[in-house]
Amino acid sequence: MNPENPLTRIVDYLRISITDRCNERCLYCMPEGFSDWKLREEILTYEEILAAAETAVGLGFRKFRVTGGEPLVRKDAEHFVADLIALPGVEQVGLSTNATRLAPIARHLAEAGLRSVNISLDALDPAIYSRITGGKLEQVMAGIDAALEAGIPVVKLNAVLMRGVNEHQIWPLAQFAAEKGLILRFIELMPVSLTEMLDESNFLPAGEAKQIMASHTPMIVDDHHYGNGPAQYFRLPELDSSVGFIGAMTNLHFCEACNKIRLTADGKIRPCLGNHGEFDLKPALRPEINPALLREIFLASLREKPPEHQFRNQYQPGRIMTAIGG
Length: 326
Description:
This protein has 326 residues and is α/β, with parallel strands linked by helices.
């Protein structure tokens, strides 16, 4: 770890949101009727984001993930990803996407050196998928196939667990991931946009999802880590595959190994998704880029990284998930 990093634990992973816009409206992410998008001039330019990433590299950050909103709705996103990959000192770059716009640019991303892509897929039933996201499942499937055909080394699927909505999709999703040779993770619902999303009627804990999975096939603890996140993985020998479970609400040790901070599309460093604290980078970026001030603000954000999130404490989100970054 870089000695300038003030934390005792390693924080070397920066998730970069390049837009707060999304072409889907997921139940757990965006309130119905929401339209409070940031103005274009409030969003960081690609040049400004790369300057921030360069500062992060100087502080020991080596892993980066490009997110949104939906990052691929922003013009020239694939060229930005290529520029980030080419930045000296960057070792890993991933992309999180709903994959609806991935198919046409998957090969370009692979050729630029993209090593991993995480794709949101909450259901395989087209009607359930549309209910959750408002989108079209066939576009996602085309994106998944394009990523595999392009040779992107790691393709993961993320499914958010919602009682009464997609618990019957758990086993079909596991079978689909195994057939495609993909890593699948199930994610507990979190109050990232709406506190009322978390009640007994719609919260499905990871432990219950494991029980549903175990009713279909044997599961063995898998000690291999398939990325930078806190998922607990299990091997499914009969399917020759692995699935992960991310339990931010029920796993009391969830935050202990957290190695990430976030950069929002409007230029705020967010040390923790489940805390309101933010640090504004814009004074170090406009009217001109000030590397010394950038480093100072990054260091301040690292000093204030909390030991754990506040999701279990009646957390009231101040910004919706698309405004924070996935």
